[in-house]
Design brief:
- This protein is α+β, with helices and mostly antiparallel strands.
- The protein has helices at about 10-20, 105, 155-165, 175, 200-205, 270-275, 285-290, 325-335, 335-345, 375-385, 400-410, 425-435, 450-455, 475-485, 490-505; strands spanning about 1-5, 55-60, 80-85, 110-115, 120, 125-130, 135-140, 180-185, 190-195, 230-235, 240-245, 260-265, 280-285, 300, 305-315, 350, 390-400, 415-425, 440-445, 510-515, 515-520, 525, 535, 540, 545.
- Helix 8 (about 325-335) runs antiparallel to helix 10 (about 375-385).
- About 50% of the residues are buried.
- Mean pLDDT is about 85; it is low at about 1-50 and about 55-70.
Amino acid sequence: MTYDGDTVRFTSWRSRRLSRRNVLRTSGLGAAGLTAAALIGCGSDDEDTGGSGGTSGASGGGSAGSNVQTSGQSAAFERKGTLFLRDTPQTQDFHRHTGTMPSPSLVCDTPTAIDASGATQLFLLDAMEAPDAANYTFTFKPGVKFHNGRGMTAEDVRLNFERIRATDGAWMKGTADGISSIETPDEQTVVVTLDEPYSPMLSLLSEMWIMAPESPGWDGTITEPIGTGPFAWKQWIPNDRIDLEAHTEYWQPNRPAISAIQVKNLEGDPIPALLAGDVHISGITVTQRALVEGNPDVNLQLEKATSWEFLSFNNRSPRAPFDDLRVRRAIGHALDKAALNEFANGDTGMVADQMAPPNSFYWSDQIVDPFATPNLAEARKLLAAAGVGDLRAVMPVNSTPAKPEVVAAQLREIGVECDLQVADDVTTETRLQSYDWDLYFAGSGTRSDIALRFVRMMSDGPNPGLWGGPQNADYDRLVKEAWAEVDAEARKAKYLEAWQVVMDNLFTIVAYHRAGLTASRKEVVGWETGAMANFNRIDGGVSHITLA
């Protein structure tokens, strides 16, 4: 086994990466705003599926497939090979994705993009001006073509904003709803004015997949996305695969270097296929790592950003006695975070108490974790003070019970018996949104900006069930004040105040942060994990690889 660079334990790897990232100071606009092609910077669902292969993997060995000579590329350039990726497609309508699907990056580009270091860069944008966090002038690259051969214009971008705003459940709807006006003074320029200052805007545009308005289903649900990305849509066979072919007029010269991709909906353990050479790239779990360590044909890489996992209480409709802070604190004291982290992550995780990972920009060493180590005596004392004896907690489980079982065993030590109710994703999600439960152990993946973590616990936040649907006016106010700040340090201070509200009310208890693992075969040349789980990105991913 080889890592990308030196083989290091998680703690030293994390601190080395963050020392580079600290200078970026997140997605904040400077006091004087941003102009031209400035570096923007950024901050950082719910399944333990490994690394930036995530649910992804590449299956099918070798480099079979057609060779495509592309007009407009260099004369010697020739695409070779078909790559098979593993993903579970949620929808063909990429405006409706939930933030957990890496496949849209194969078909669609975005105005901005998150690079491997975690910084936000201009992608489809050629230039950008923002005197403050409410007014943006975007200049898009000329010569960008959709897969149907038509050139992308500012009007296409405006229509994408409008469709997102009009689509219930759209991933970027909250951002689009905050737009007061959109103007297109020429074919390459979009001027956006927001109702209120919103500093995460630039980073979040890295998740706005641009599609042509002539995409079939545009007025309802898109069935065949026409994007500008490195691969064009051919077909989707539900529960089987998506077939893609290289975009022969892609705006990045000599990319992609492979001729086709098949995104396969494969179930089960990817290791046998990886070892047999039938899988090129796959996210793997910590327990699967032992099966490929020492194999000279396999390289391992850590993801360059972290997911976080946590134990949430039902905050929207709590049942007694879980509405009593003494009971919540008792449960926190019963948790053995270090043991849980070791079980779940080995050396790829670290115990934590905040939404941001330790030593990152939005993390604070001034916040003290009251549950850093278990204290069963204090837990029993708090339960007695609350008049609680043996206690039953209903805990929904999303498909895989291993980690909730460890949590349940720890809580059993103080007389709390967890009723683990294992169900499929849809059933569990429905249960969470009905708030007919007491505890839920969950995780949330990497994000383009930490705003996408804070927003989930707002009173009207998207998909709030993972955090028990908190509704707290002080928290909402502080997060909105953070969004209005153009100074990164001032924004950080507001976010930390908001996080203190979470800790004071114990909406959720953070257990740890973890970096995913990705395995790739030696035949894949140029693959590198990124700070996001996308298959493709501005400075890496599948459009940059070749198959040996």
